[in-house]
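Q: How would the structure tokens look for this protein?
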Amino acid sequence: MVTAESGENKDKTSERNGFKIYSVIIIIILSITIALLILFVGLYLLFGLYTPFFKVASDSMMPTLEVEDTIVVSGLVSFSQLKVGDIIVFTTPSNNDRIIVHRIIDRLQTQDTEIILRTQGDASPNSIDGLDYPVREHNYIGKVVYHISNKDPFFSILKPPVIHIIILVTFTGLASASLYTLIIRGKNN
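A: Here is the predicted structure in token form.
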């Protein structure tokens, strides 16, 4: 009889251990899901975009923006609020296949009150039709609100993907701790 009870105890212990492992896996999956949700909702609420970080890909905005600089873009600035001198991010007017970062050099209004922007790179001698003119509201992604130089070692930690990893790990840790606390409190009550 003692042997049978010991076997039952071992079965119960292994069941509890299995339950603990599954609980931990579920907590981790839920934590990552919640962290990603908080991250994307947070970015959207702060910037109006799910991905507000962009890398400068060409030297057309030299000396203001250099290749590999990181820019932070806000989609919360409406198209109608833009003015000459603002740096914006938009898709090419000709076929929407490229993302461009240029400065607004002219703001035109058509007879039917549509706003059209003419942009140009700071290093470019003029605007190029189909590339950076005419920019309409449906091409507009957002306004550049912050710029992180690729030469600034202090801010290099704020560049993607490092900042995304830091945010994800932070939110995952907070979500895991919260879920774990809820589960433990639920079992104790």
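The longest strand covers residues 99-109.

The two ends are 34 Å apart (CA to CA).

Upvote if useful.
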